[in-house]
């Protein structure tokens, strides 16, 4: 009984998934996304992503990270029931690192008050997040499977959009001003 109360009343959204299907979640998790608990139970996490491509790419990345480390954390843009996009802090733990997405527990924290979403393309967001993580253009290119030149094009667009002169200013802007 106490375990259930802790799960149900946690100050962050919690969800237990099997193969990226939501099997158990708390009311806070449902509220973050604008749903009732019953609407999400049994549904795919794909429902909460900005696009099917984001869902697929995130799954591949989670599989690598959870398989190597057993846990995972990032900040990403997610989608509410009404279609609104928002920043969310995501942390996950695989129950079996050998089968990372088979069974996992995730926490989601809504960051929309601190980080409103700016109008950037999906690729600009991806490049911006990886720049903030400290990756070089070559590392970003490998991660996103694009050319280093394409990374520089997106980085230059971001610099123009935010009115900054160099990478340090861009990273400062991206970390204090949401993507």
UniProtKB/TrEMBL annotation:
Residue span(s) of domain HTH luxR-type: 113-178
Q: Which Pfam family is an annotated match for this chain, by its short name? A: GerE
Q: Name one GO molecular function term.
A: DNA binding
Q: Which InterPro entries match?
A: PAS (IPR000014), PAS-like_dom_sf (IPR035965), Sig_transdc_resp-reg_C-effctor (IPR016032), Tscrpt_reg_LuxR_C (IPR000792), WH-like_DNA-bd_sf (IPR036388)
Q: Which domain of life does the protein's organism represent?
A: Bacteria
Going by the UniProt record, its keywords in alphabetical order are:
DNA-binding, Transcription, Transcription regulation
Keyword Protein biosynthesis listed: no
Q: Which GO terms describe its biological process?
A: regulation of DNA-templated transcription
Lipid metabolism: present as a keyword of the record?
A: no
- SMART domains attached to this UniProt entry: HTH_LUXR
Q: Which residues does UniProt call coiled coil? A: none
Q: What is this protein called?
A: Helix-turn-helix transcriptional regulator
